[in-house]
Please model this.
Amino acid sequence: MQRVAQLGYLHFEVKDLAAWEAFGTQVLGLGLAGRRADGGFALRMDGHAARLFVTPGSADDLACLGWECADDEALAAVGDRLRAAGVAVREGTAEECEARMVRRLLRFADPAGTPSEAFCGPALAAEPFRSEVVRAGFVADEQGLGHAVVTANAQAESAAFYEEMLGFRLSDHIRCDIHGFRVDIAFFHANARHHTIAFGDRQRKRIHHFMVEARSIDDVGLALDRTMAAGLRVMQTLGRHPNDRMLSFYAKTPSGFQFEFGYGGRAVDDATWVPTSYDHISEWGHHPPEFLSKPTEKKPSA
Ligand SMILES: [Fe+2]
Model:
């Protein structure tokens, strides 16, 4: 089956562009990859010319998921499956492709209505990005920019779409009760990254959080220092998930949805992988940190 290869880009529509530029460059440690005519900007993290597109608007939410296919043939196969299933697919215009810095793209929506694009031929940077802030760099490139946990109207409906239309494979489930809330999340992979997309039920926004993964555990600690110094609200303390083994923390972006900054995610080998179900969401940590909810005096160490 020809399938999506990775999470190529995310597009956010945000109310406070200046706050996002500071967050993206100084907290996440991404690189500014050019300003746009609409006042927005792009950010990069690896060999791709752009990984995040940030544009002004009132939504403060995910505006589009960008799914990279290996080549024109794979993209055409994804488009054919979508159309055969009755999904409305529109070929991206030359202007839209230029704005995304890709050769060709198809636009559609997932079952929850989240705008989505499948594309091929992303522009690559002349030199891979080297962050002055995240010194060891990011786990990205062929594993994609990270992962996204998105809204779903019905988990089974979204699972069928991402598996059968886009070619994702089930990694596992986490089903448990946390603080009186039922959690039932399904995780899917497109490459060696344990999960590239996950969803449970309906979220207030299109996205619950997106994750970026550093190559060094110290970069997670430094990112937490920068998050607190920036006054961003930490939502979950350092912890480790049982399924992807990611050591991470969560905090709010300037738009209110969350980001996860992690290290040490495990790789999936489809030849041997058997999906399982976990009854806990964290091995340790990931606590709601009321005691960390105010900005601290601590300055980032890097
Ligand atoms: Fe996550």
